[in-house]
Amino acid sequence: MTEPARLEGVPGRYWHRLEDGRIQCDVCPRYCRLNEGQRGLCFVRGRQDDRIVLTTYGRSSGFCVDPIEKKPLNHYLPGTPVLSFGTAGCNLTCKFCQNWDISKARELDRLQDTAAPEDIVEAAIATGSRSIAYTYNDPVIFLEYAVDVAKVARRRGIKNVAVTAGYIDAAAREELYTFMDAANVDLKAFTEEFYKRLCTGHLGAVLETLEYLKQRTKVWFEITTLLIPGHNDSPGEVGLGCPVRSSGLSGLLKSSKKPPLISIEEHLPPMGCGPRRWNRSTNTAPW
Hints:
Layout lengths: L9 E2 L3 E3 L5 E3 L7 E2 L10 E3 L4 E3 L4 E2 L1 E6 L13 E6 L13 H4 L9 E2 L2 H10 L4 E4 L8 H13 L3 E6 L5 H9 L3 E5 L5 H8 L3 H14 L3 E7 L8 H4 L4 H4 L6 E4 L31
Parallel strand pairs: 9-11, 11-12, 12-13, 13-14, 14-15
Antiparallel strand pairs: 1-6, 2-3, 3-4, 5-6, 7-10, 8-9
Helix pairs in contact: 2-3
């Protein structure tokens, strides 16, 4: 039997050893429990030499200069360019993912550009970008890389923007948002059933992130939800019963018009995807 390939990468910061000898990754609520050589569900974090390593550090799936509104952030540095980049993999398995070719990639499939944190910040300055967005997949799973870039960016006067699903454990969450200035949180839906069925995750963990951002940080954040007819657009979900509204966050909500790109499409009614009389966002600017 051939030996499995070594997992090359930088040490991760969030894990602990279990009594049965496995190591548990603690960066997100999946808490993957790994034997030597195994990868977590995100595929980019794994166990090597009795520790968790991040295999995508310093490597990107691509770079692009976007308007900040494309993140989407409607009330943070409006009209300014943002340098966007991401890596590969994801810690959710959304059947309606818009970036499936990146989030479902298997490391080398999509990682083509090599860039140290200093290189990314220099690129942001050279392109006139006011901020750097950690996007395309989720900065949660490349946390060590994102934080190192963000530290350099902050020293150089560049703002940091997390585009995230908010599926992160408490300790890792505190570190990530210590270095973020703004965030767009992709709230997939408003019920535990939806998260379990279509994302194999839990709504509660995302709500904890939203409450943390509002109550314990100065991070400017907005919430975006892709409304999918027949799945998360009922009046009961987006009306007064929405758990986000009950958390005092309703002023930050907005809906997305982009259609999903993978397997859920075949289950949609003929009307397709789009917002249904629901578009709320804050009108208070942070700058």
